[in-house]
Amino acid sequence: MTIAERLGVNRVVVALAFARLTDAIGNSMMAVVLPLYVADLPSPLFDLPTAFLVGLLISFYGIVNTVLQPFMGVLADRVGSRKRVIQIGLVLMSLGTLSFVLAEQYSHLFLIRGLQGIGVAMTVPATLALMTAASVKSTRGGSMGVYSTARLVGFALGPLMGGFLFDHFGFVTVFVVGAALVMLGWLLVTRWVNEDELPARELPKKNEPFKMFDRSIWSKEVMGLGLATIAMTICYSMLAALENEFNAKLAQTAFGFGFAFSGLAVGRLLFQIPIGRLSDRIGRKPVIIGGLIAMAPATIFLGYATTTGMLAMGRFLQGMTSAAISSPAFALVGDMAQAGGEARQMSVVSTGFFVGAAIGPLIAGGLVHVWFQLPFVVGAVLCVLGAVLVYRVVPETITSRPVDPT
């Protein structure tokens, strides 16, 4: 067995991973620039603290994803070409990013973030369904690790690029470059992904009932993983709403915040593939539970950071622990996926990321003024509860160590 086969890598996995890398760079550039842009725009209808306004905007983006991803999962399962769904979603994401140039006041950003949210909701379930079809159970954790690693490389580079471009060229350059990178992802999907290479799937007949909320698809096991993912994402998404507070507290620049913010992606980048392969060998469930428990102290550490280096270290620790949750969770759902319902089932976990991304900034923006460390403590408690939930309701799909045919 070659190294690529051990990692679960094939042409489709590589194509989807590289496409995800480029659009992740474009999207994550906004993590650094959006709080600064909100502070710069007039907001005559909202007399609220900037941190809360940022949290509200980030949460709206997450809510759009939360509401639409299950429906887009239905669309991806129903239509003949999941690739086409991905392509349309990427175009909408690029247009949304470019539209920031046209915003004249804070309220306009809701329309723009809504457009971006629709694009992401279309792209994610269809991509994960293709990843499931392109991988096999014995190496699926590795396949998801490769995909997630490429995505995290993008999220590591994005904040750094966003902070650098803003400091040297301003807002407009950030938005134009971000939109162009998303379209590069579209080009990679268009040129490299060939659905004919994947196993044939049986599509529902035109007159056949097609239930969105099919109990056999929306099972308690899948929902349990979705809730655990929400807890994880709440923990690492809170920082996005607190840039101005941390910049003032630590006397750092936008680039400094971008450096620290990228620590999460760096941690996941280094550990995503090894931990994904570990879940192929010892099982998905113990790895996920261990990651959730370890995420709790890593999150609390952020609240007590007194330097940019400490903030970056806290994010790195969050990256390590989240690597133990995300790829094994996707692989576990892929293992349990019902034929014809892959996109809908994978959308449960992917939606969990966006639900957490919607709730986390609101928790941070609302609680940080009560006690600075309070939102981080709340996130830690939620992760421990998530670990208990996974232990109680989620099954294990890896019952023995895969045999190396060589």
Overall description:
By secondary structure, this protein is mainly α. Helices cover 76% and strands 0% of the residues. It has 16 helices and no strands. The longest helix has 30 residues, at 140-169. 57% of the residues are buried.
What order do the helices and strands come in, and which of them pair?
Layout: H1 3-6, H2 11-28, H3 30-40, H4 50-78, H5 82-99, H6 108-134, H7 140-169, H8 171-192, H9 220-237, H10 243-250, H11 254-261, H12 263-282, H13 284-303, H14 308-336, H15 342-367, H16 374-393
Helix pairs in contact: 2-7, 2-8, 3-4, 3-7, 4-6, 4-15, 5-6, 5-8, 6-15, 7-8, 7-11, 7-12, 7-14, 9-13, 9-14, 9-15, 9-16, 11-14, 12-13, 12-14, 13-14, 13-16, 14-15, 15-16
Describe the structure concisely.
By secondary structure, the chain is mainly α. The protein is built from 16 helices and no strands.
**Overall pLDDT:** 82
Question: What structural class results from the helix and strand content?
Answer: mainly alpha
- Globally, the shape reads globular
Proportion of residues in helical segments: over 70%
Low-pLDDT residue intervals, each spanning 5 or more residues:
402-406
Order of helices and strands: HHHHHHHHHHHHHHHH
Assess the beta-strand content as a share of residues: under 5%
Pick out its properties:
mainly alpha; disordered C terminus; 406 residues
